[in-house]
Prior knowledge:
Elements: H1 3-11, E1 23-26, E2 33-39, E3 43-50, E4 55-62, E5 68-73, E6 81-82, E7 86-87, E8 91-97, E9 105-111, E10 117-123, E11 127-133, E12 136-141, E13 146-151, E14 156-161, E15 167-174, E16 177-183, E17 189-195, E18 201-207, E19 220-224, E20 227-231, E21 238-243
Antiparallel strand pairs: 1-21, 2-3, 3-4, 4-5, 6-8, 7-8, 8-9, 9-10, 11-12, 12-13, 13-14, 15-16, 16-17, 17-18, 19-20, 20-21
Amino acid sequence: MDIVPALLVLGQMVTLDRLPRPHTLSLKGVVYHVQGIDLDDSRLWVTSVDAKSRKGYLHEFSMPGGELLRSVEVQDGARFHPGGIATDSVSIYVPVAEYRRSSTAVIQRRGKRTLALEAQFEVNDHIGCIAVSGDTLIGGNWDSLELYFWDRAGVLKRKVPNPTGNGFQDIKVVEGVLVASGLLKDRTGAIDWLELPSLRTIRRITTGATDRGDPFTREGMTIRDGRLYLLPEDHPSRLFSFELLP
C-alpha cells in the first residue's frame, strides 16, 4: 500500500476528530510513564520510565490481543530515560538519556527477536526520540528543539533547529516523510508531516485529549498500513488506532 497519498488526504483534515472513530485496545500489563511505541503485525513495543526507581524499560506486547510478553531494563548508568523508538526489519532503536535537559544519551540498537542490546553510541545531549530512514537515524533532543541526523554508526551528519514549534515526542519515517507527534507551546497536541531532507511542513493535524484528559500526542505514536496508533496514557494504558484512509 502506498502511504503517501493517504497522508495527503489526511492532511486536508484539520483535527483528529475528523477521522473515523478510533479502535481502542487496553494493554494487559503494567507500564510506567509511557515514552514511545512501534509495532508490526504481531508485536507492539513500548518504552516507559519509572522515575522513582530510576529505571527504564522496553516492553513487548502481543498484537492484536495486548498481552504483555516480556519487559527488559534499558538504563545505562545515570541514563535511564528511554524515549520515542523506531524499528526496522530486525532491530529496535531506543534512545536512553539522563532525565534532564542538555545532558547525555546513548542510542541503543536492540534485537527484535531477543530485545538484547547489540550496539550503542553516545550523544552529548538528551535525545528523546528516534526515527530510522535507510542508513540514517534522526533524533530529537528535549522537546525536539533541535534535530540530529547520524549514520547508523553514530557519526553526526547534521544538526538543525526544529522549524515547526512542535515538541516532538515520537517520530517515524513513513515512505520518505518524517511524521512527528508532540505538543505545541500552548499544550495543543499536533502531528506534523515533514519533507526530507528539507524539513518543510507538508501537513499538520491538531489533536484533542482522551476521556482521561491526556493529549493524544502526549507520548507514543506510530503509523502502519494506513493506520495511526497513539499511546498517550500511563497504566492502565490504551492504544488508540485511527484509520487514515477512507
